[in-house]
Design a protein that fits this description.
The chain is α+β, with helices and mostly antiparallel strands and 637 residues long. Helices cover 52% and strands 17% of the residues. Strands 4, 5, 6, 7, 8 and 9 form a 6-stranded antiparallel beta sheet that branches. A 3-stranded antiparallel beta sheet has the order 3-2-10. A 3-stranded mixed beta sheet has the order 14-13-15, with no helix packed on it. It is flat. About 2% of the residues have low confidence.
């Protein structure tokens, strides 16, 4: 453990450095939250209105805008999916997908991310922490995802990157009970029991928790550091790895003798360290507890301009830009309502002795009562003050301010042009145009959220590999982990954690993918879709569908058999007709040959007759041929 005094001094110095830079941001962020909650009048303005017996009315359009954007994000929330890259084991990637979905559902991770995104829209920055809880699993722990309020941490003022890779330190404060502190540090239970809460100090004054007098101050000091290390490099392949920190020099020399192609280099390895102070006393100093050698935090930025010199405006949310028009809208509408109320009773002028009970005049409205000396009024002793007329331009100004709030925030009515049903193809081209028009100005915020979500997925993979043993993984998955599951390079080089359709489980994700493929025309049987469907009484439905498919198959077989019988009958009939036609044509040829033979015999006989007999014979022959032709035509028919 490092020197406690040195660490405490370093922590105090870095706190002062961060507070000087981020104090303006913290004050502006608190105002942003006040405007969202409806506290939009300053103390001076409230006092002024109270003196005039006027109400400090609030017409909160900011909350609707924030709820509109966060509502869209929650409605279109996406899940996690580990996609195997080229050459990676798809089984291991599928197992990581199942684990990511299990963790996010088990610890309400998706809701936590949505809450952090909402905080980023309000104040400019939301922070999510990945931790381990040993309450239910004292060996492996259970991964937890929690949102850290903006006023309980301070970042390095010199950060430029959204992934905190250049963030030199992170300071954080929590107020814990003794039981909570002992749960985090069981080895310090006796020490914690002897501690006495000392209350507030000069740090994190905006992070005071209810009941702080009975709670202990828990301060975390995260920082990036370096330590000397030895790397082993294969000269032939270029592959390298660190030599274990606890490895002995003799073991290293023996290893190099066995593998002469290995070269060694001395480098400074980047590490992340954590120091914990409980009531200003150092109780832990060492590597990050998760073993991932990185911060456990994931930031979600709204507007981030790291090159701007004013820290109060370096990180901003949507509310920051619409506070002024919202304030002016409240003022204008309040004045308009006061004018309308003054139409009923704008005030009175009265002589001192004109009424018995002077308080009665004050109860007639918001107007004033002007007391005059007796005899000052010429027409009666009491006169009503005529109310002023409301200029029409005031209504036009109010409408302008109301529209500018939406315009400045980048939100318009077209953002609501999203179809309610899940079949986006039914929505049509017009709905897509409206959605695109409404989301273009907000795309940057959703991109920042997706970036944070991708970083969270990468951290979760590292935490799983570092802390979840094979037995715990097998219990979650229902089977042993794949061969590449615990390969440290697998999560970095062989899978890509991307967004996917969010469902209650991996089965629902698989089911939706099957339905989409079925809609695209893939030859997927309904039995496979029903097997993955997350519905109640699925077995009964499967039996009914299987019986229906069996009936359809039997009907198709019967129809096929009937078609085969009909086809055979048609073929037999066709054969008979062909045979009959052949026989008929043969008979026709025989009749024609017999007719020609009779003609020749007749001619021979005619040669022996005289001319008159020849003529009579020719006539007889023609009549015979005509009769023969008629018989052939009749036969043909």
């Amino acid at each position: 453990m490092a020197n406690e005094a040195t660490l405490k001094q370093e922590f105090n110095e870095r706190y002062k450095e961060a507070l000087i830079s981020w104090n303006a941001f913290l004050e502006e962020a608190r105002k942003d939250l006040s405007f969202y909650a409806g506290d939009q009048w300053s103390a001076t303005e409230k006092s002024y209105l109270a003196q005039q017996r006027r109400e400090s009315l609030v017409f909160n359009k900011i909350k609707r805008i924030i709820n509109l954007i966060t509502g869209y994000q929650r409605r279109n929330r996406l899940g996690f999916k580990a996609v195997p890259l080229e050459g990676a084991d798809p089984q291991a990637a599928s197992q990581f997908t199942a684990l990511l979905m299990f963790i996010m559902q088990n610890c309400q991770g998706f809701h936590t991310m949505s809450d952090a995104f909402e905080q980023a829209l309000k104040v400019g920055l939301g922070l999510v922490e990945v931790s381990l809880s040993y309450r239910d699993d004292p060996v492996n722990g259970d991964i937890q995802i929690m949102r850290v309020p903006y006023n309980r941490f301070l970042l390095d003022p010199n950060i430029m990157r959204r992934d905190l890779s250049d963030c030199a330190f992170i300071l954080r404060r929590e107020w814990l009970s003794k039981e909570e502190a002992k749960e985090l540090l069981p080895s310090k239970a006796s020490f914690i029991d002897e501690l006495r809460p000392t209350g507030l100090d000069d740090k994190f004054t905006l992070a005071v928790k209810a009941g702080y007098r009975k709670r202990l101050r828990w301060d975390e000091y995260w920082r990036r550091d370096t330590e000397k290390a030895i790397i082993l490099v294969d000269r032939e392949t270029g592959e390298w790895r660190y030599w274990p920190k606890q490895g002995k020099k003799e073991a290293l020399e023996l290893f190099l003798q066995q593998y002469p192609q290995i070269a060694t280099h001395e480098v400074y390895k980047p590490v992340v360290k954590l120091s914990v102070f409980l009531e200003d006393q150092l109780v832990y100093d060492g590597p990050d507890p998760l073993g991932i050698n990185d911060y456990p935090f994931v930031p979600i930025f709204c507007e981030f301009d790291p090159e701007y010199d004013a820290y109060g405006k370096r990180i901003t949310g949507i509310i920051r830009a619409i506070r002024d028009p919202q304030r002016e809208l409240n003022k204008r509408r309040s004045k308009m309502l006061d004018m309308i109320d003054s139409q009923l009773a704008s005030g009175w002028q009265a002589e001192k002795s004109a009424v018995v009970n002077k308080k009665d005049l004050y109860q007639t409205g918001q107007g004033k009562v002007i007391w005059l000396e007796d005899g000052a009024l010429t027409a009666g002793r009491i006169r009503k003050i005529d109310p002023p007329s409301i200029p029409p331009s005031l209504f036009q100004l109010e409408q302008t301010l109301s529209g500018e709030i939406m315009e400045i925030a980048g939100v318009n009515n077209e953002l609501m042009g999203v179809p309610d049903n899940e079949n986006l193809r039914i929505a049509g081209f017009l709905a897509k145009l409206r959605q695109a028009a409404g989301l273009t100005s907000l795309q940057k915020y959703f991109d920042n959220y997706r970036l944070a979500k991708a970083m969270l997925g990468d951290k979760l993979v590292k935490v799983i590999q570092q802390n979840y043993g094979p037995d715990k993984v097998a219990k979650i998955l229902g089977g042993p982990p794949a061969r590449e599951f615990y390969d440290r390079n697998f999560g970095k080089y062989k899978i890509d954690v991307v967004e996917s359709l969010l469902s209650d489980s991996q089965r629902q994700m698989y089911y939706r993918e099957l339905v989409m493929l079925k809609q695209m025309g893939a030859p997927i049987p309904w039995s496979a879709i029903l097997e993955a469907a997350p519905i109640e009484h699925r077995e009964k439905l499967q039996q009914a569908v299987a019986q229906e498919e069996q009936n359809l198959a039997q009907q198709m077989a019967e129809e096929k058999q009937k078609d085969a019988i009909w086809l055979q009958a048609q073929l037999a009939k066709t054969r008979e007709e062909v045979a009959s036609e052949v026989e008929r044509r043969a008979e026709t040829k025989r009749e024609l040959s017999q007719s020609q033979l009779n003609t020749v015999k007749a001619l021979t006989a005619l040669a022996k007759l005289d001319v008159e007999k020849i003529k009579a014979a020719v006539q007889l022959l023609k009549s015979l041929e005509g009769a023969s032709a008629r018989r052939r035509r009749i036969t043909t028919r």
